[in-house]
């Protein structure tokens, strides 16, 4: 049985390189899309890398200059020589379609990457030898996520588009009578200092033991989810979900928490708790109370929660209890989960 050839499109690769050797403006259209490793053939990787080097130095790229660049890098023979460079110029159907060719080559590269990833996963799964399967699942998800991020890119936007987004945001803030753009915490002093919790920010709440860090974080989660209807994810590495829910009920119903814990409630308090339960049930608040959760596990769950519910605020109580894969590089792991 013959071995299957990995996804590729040699004609598209040749057309791209030929277009770059003919039209000096073509590289501007695809330099952001393609990297040398996206090409299947090694000789094409070398040629494209040489063209990019010339582009970075603001020098023109043609058969002569690229050949000279490859010669200086001792890559000319690997690239097929000057004859192959000349042949590439004659292989171009049209320079106008260079961006479409680039997409074909990039898609083939991603397919090859997925195949390679699948093969590695299959090999590790077969030869795991009793290793932690959660570690493998987390690694796979991270690599697939990283691969998907490589396929995404941002480009320049005309200011009128950005202005339209800004006006919509300002109008929304005006309607809410809010004085800041971030997520409000419900605590005026904090909101005035931070202008709310800003997207992508990592905020550390630090204090001595038993002074109310959990209560404060839970109150913030409650306010954001209940009053603002913004999805919140809450990782509790210390308290159980039952304990957290009791605290939330006590706060929402304005009932003594000790009475909820003991069940020593009168009819009016029971009615308040019933109303509080209905309010909390409709709030987009998600709790995970896995004890000693690992950072990679939280990353996996957080990404899934964001994709499924559009969560905008994640709270970890508390981060020191998270289990790290690499204790010598804990700062990077904490940074990684914040992303």
Automatic annotation (TrEMBL):
Keyword annotations from UniProtKB, A to Z: ATP-binding, DNA replication, DNA-binding, Helicase, Hydrolase, Isomerase, Nucleotide-binding, Primosome
EC number: 5.6.2.3
Gene3D superfamilies, A to Z: DNAb Helicase, Chain A (1.10.860.10), P-loop containing nucleotide triphosphate hydrolases (3.40.50.300)
MF term (GO), any: hydrolase activity
InterPro entries: DNA_heli_DnaB-like_N_sf, DNA_helicase_DnaB-like_C, DNA_helicase_DnaB-like_N, DNA_helicase_N/primase_C, P-loop_NTPase
GO biological process: DNA replication, synthesis of primer
UniProt GO cellular component terms: cytosol; primosome complex
Catalysed conversion reaction: ATP + H2O = ADP + phosphate + H(+)
SF4 helicase domain location: 176-339
Alphabetized PANTHER family for the sequence: REPLICATIVE DNA HELICASE, REPLICATIVE DNA HELICASE DNAB
Family designation: Belongs to the helicase family. DnaB subfamily.
Descriptive protein name: DNA 5'-3' helicase
Organism: candidate division WWE3 bacterium
Lineage: Bacteria, Katanobacteria
